[in-house]
């Protein structure tokens, strides 16, 4: 109980910390470009809050409240680009999954003034969760950036690149999943002759009831995971992490160099602490929202959560020894 008192005291001190994130910088040629230079400034550029309504037009680029002054940068088909995470802390610290979509601006339309409407979006990259029947893990958790190839077969032209991290730590009720979204504007050169697809619309691609969006990732532990959205285009060797069972069929060096999620960019400045004490949930006291973090039923290695006892909208995390993101 002594450690529980310390826990509450620490929580009180930092209860106002907003611990979310966004994607302000495009990575081109291995270099971070300036904040909101090629990425459309998102509504959450200041508060970092997620989008939770997948039927909103903002599920497209999350930029309805901003002025849309981003420039368009030239990138070659087949080259690697990415987005840098900025937040508090600056990494994808929520357990979740990642998708990257692209959409081609209609002929004659400047991508800088295009809204991305219609069935125009195709997926080029994803980092799903991995459920092996015993545990579920989230390879995107902790990344400070997400990089991926522009498909070599992609025709030249102007495109939006839409990245999303779908945080699933409180996704067990409808609307609980948190979408961290941004769109960049690119001019693709040296393109191929492929036909991207399947094509989806935003909003439209998700209802919020998908098994990979409306999901309790803690209890019972999911024995499988279905990544939201269409399959990655092109179908193979395009940047989607290969399931372990099929990795032996991926034999080309090109494929093996592009299928794995980045491993060299995991968070190095943030220490997630595993809860080691156990406290019964408090009831009828002001500590209830903290007591939900008592550790019962959760033994995760990177953070601790108790969504089955969650007092929405409170969730529990320990970052650098402090509790954040209530
Ligand atoms: Cu958050």
Automatic annotation (TrEMBL):
Residues 234-285 are annotated as: Disordered. It comes from the Eukaryota. One of its GO terms (biological process) is cellulose catabolic process. Pfam families: AA9. Keywords: Carbohydrate metabolism, Cellulose degradation, Copper, Disulfide bond, Hydrolase, Metal-binding, Monooxygenase, Oxidoreductase, Polysaccharide degradation, Secreted, Signal. Gene3D superfamilies: 2.70.50.70. Residues 1-19 form the signal peptide. The keyword Oxidoreductase applies. Residues 20-225 form the Auxiliary Activity family 9 catalytic domain. InterPro entries: AA9, AA9_LPMO. GO terms for molecular function: hydrolase activity; metal ion binding; monooxygenase activity. It catalyses: [(1->4)-beta-D-glucosyl]n+m + reduced acceptor + O2 = 4-dehydro-beta-D-glucosyl-[(1->4)-beta-D-glucosyl]n-1 + [(1->4)-beta-D-glucosyl]m + acceptor + H2O. GO terms for cellular component: extracellular region. It is found in: Secreted. Its cofactor is Cu(2+). Its EC number is 1.14.99.56. Belongs to the polysaccharide monooxygenase AA9 family. This is lytic cellulose monooxygenase (C4-dehydrogenating).
